[in-house]
Each structure stands twice: as structure tokens, then as C-alpha cells.
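Page 37, continued from 36.
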């Protein structure tokens, strides 16, 4: 039986009175709810259409996403596109977003290195994520990585233990947790990357099957 998860958190006062993806995106553009905006180029809001039956939620934008203003357009995004195609899911049929909308980073030479957002930063961004989910109303939700899984499935969620396991939520009929594609890119060798990528595709196939069942 699926594990039931209760939705927590409330919308912040700066949410627009009438929720739409356009109004949410415009309101989030000037978000100052946590300090991350100071070092980010811009807010990176979700991308996709209202009514998408599948929503994928990652952790936060990366360096490329921060510069381009779009989610999942860097190396991890390219890997995700390939894995979605292998799983029989078209990216244009999904809505992609992140739990945190600003890039958190630390300098290392000339590079900007990703830093994991903390609980207060995730909580500050939660109203935007909740707004997106209220508008899109997905049938299937996929959490990419631990930050997204714990934000939406509860603090006890563990990707390695729970991946492929169905969760019930108030924002989607069924939800799943899997790894973030960036973790596959960080695997220590080609053999590990191949193994992790195959398992990631398998997780997305489970989501694709849930989508098919929801539409039956």
C-alpha cells in the first residue's frame, strides 16, 4: 500500500491573489524571502504547461540554469532529457521545477560550485512550489534528489530506501522519489555512471507506468 503523506506549510502573503503560472512567475521574480537572491543572477521558475500530468521537482537551479533563467538546461538537464526519452516520457508533457528557485553557490577559483540549500531556504521557497502544484494539478509527482523528496514527502523520506516506492500526497495521486541526475554525473567512474543511469531510467519508467494507469 502507498504511504500517505500530508501536505504541510501555508502560502506566503506575497503570493498573487489569483494563481496562474504567469502570475506566480512574475511575483517570484523579485522574491526576497531568503538571502539567496543576493548572489543569484535571477529567479529560475518552473517551466511547462498548466495541466501537465507529470511534475518533476529538483533541488535548485545550477550555474547554467541561473544564467539562462530556465530549469534543467545544464549537464544534469541534458541527462534528464535523455533518461525521460528512454522511459517513454516527453519533456514537453511534463512540468519541471525546483524546490528552491535561486542558485546557492560558493566560489572556487573562477567557478561557482553548488551548495545544498538548508531547511530555512527550502521553507522560504515552499509557497512558490505549492502554488505551482496547485495550478498544474499533476497526476504523478517525481522528486529528484533528497531535498525535493524531503520537502514534499516528509523529512523521513530517503531516496536510496524509497526510490520507486509510491507515495500518496494531497498534490498528486501518486509520488515517487529518485536521485537527482547531477548525482549520476558525479559518480566516480564510467561503470558506476552507467549503473546509476540505468536505475534512474527504471525509476522514470515506474512513473511513466503510473501515468498510463492514471489515464486508463
Amino acid at each position: 500500500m502507498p504511504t500517505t503523506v500530508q501536505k504541510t506549510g501555508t502560502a506566503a502573503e506575497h503570493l498573487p491573489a489569483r494563481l496562474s503560472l504567469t502570475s506566480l512567475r512574475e511575483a517570484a521574480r523579485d522574491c526576497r524571502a531568503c538571502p539567496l537572491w543576493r548572489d543569484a543572477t535571477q529567479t529560475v521558475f518552473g517551466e511547462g504547461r498548466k495541466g501537465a500530468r507529470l511534475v518533476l521537482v529538483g533541488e535548485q537551479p545550477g550555474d547554467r540554469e541561473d544564467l539562462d533563467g530556465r530549469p534543467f538546461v545544464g549537464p544534469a538537464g541534458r541527462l534528464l532529457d535523455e533518461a525521460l526519452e528512454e522511459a517513454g516520457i516527453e519533456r514537453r508533457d511534463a512540468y519541471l521545477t525546483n524546490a528552491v528557485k535561486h542558485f546557492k553557490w560558493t566560489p572556487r577559483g573562477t567557478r561557482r560550485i553548488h551548495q545544498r540549500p538548508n531547511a530555512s531556504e527550502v521553507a522560504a521557497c515552499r509557497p512558490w512550489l505549492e502554488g505551482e502544484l496547485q495550478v498544474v494539478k499533476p497526476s504523478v509527482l517525481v522528486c529528484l534528489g533528497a531535498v525535493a523528496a524531503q520537502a514534499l514527502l516528509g523529512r523521513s523520506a530517503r531516496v536510496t530506501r524509497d526510490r520507486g516506492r509510491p507515495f500518496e500526497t494531497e498534490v498528486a495521486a501518486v509520488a515517487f522519489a529518485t536521485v537527482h541526475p547531477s548525482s549520476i554525473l558525479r559518480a566516480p567512474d564510467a561503470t558506476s555512471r552507467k549503473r546509476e543511469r540505468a536505475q534512474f531510467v527504471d525509476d522514470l519508467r515506474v512513473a511513466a507506468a503510473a501515468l498510463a494507469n492514471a489515464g486508463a
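The first strand starts at residue 3 and ends at 4. Flag for discussion at group meeting. The beta strands are 3-4, 54-58, 94-98, 105-108, 111-114, 140-144, 167-168, 174-178.
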